[in-house]
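Lab notebook, bench 4. Still working through the backlog of constructs that have no structural model yet. Next entry is a single chain of 124 residues. Request: give me the structure tokens for it.
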Amino acid sequence: MFTFIPQHKSLSGVLMDQKLAKLGDAYVNFLYSMALSKKKGEPAGTKVQGRLLADAFKKAGLREFLPSRIDCHKQADAAEALIVYPWLRGSMTMKEALEILEQNEDTIEAFSVLLLAAKSKTEL
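Model written out:
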């Protein structure tokens, strides 16, 4: 979908890509703000806390794909990179991601399910 995005050869490559994480940060915050807006019935903007993303990342069982000494901040970055990657590659729509976030009341569970869906759409 976007030619400036590298084609990674491994899931670990996606998770460790700091440039993807930066873009993923904005994308994740936008997705979550849209999901909250739909739920509240009015515009809402918010930032997803790194701790929440790190917890969702662990809950999804993705921690094993990172080096052993990675802190919570880097785990959150990895989550952001993974969530944005399939959207950038055209294999997961924003609508699909929003539906996943809307279907789960628990935010950690919602992001955990989204991370697993993103992993399955990453095609590595």
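Notes after review: The longest helix spans residues 18-40. The CA atoms of residues 3 and 12 lie 20 Å apart. Flag for follow-up if needed.
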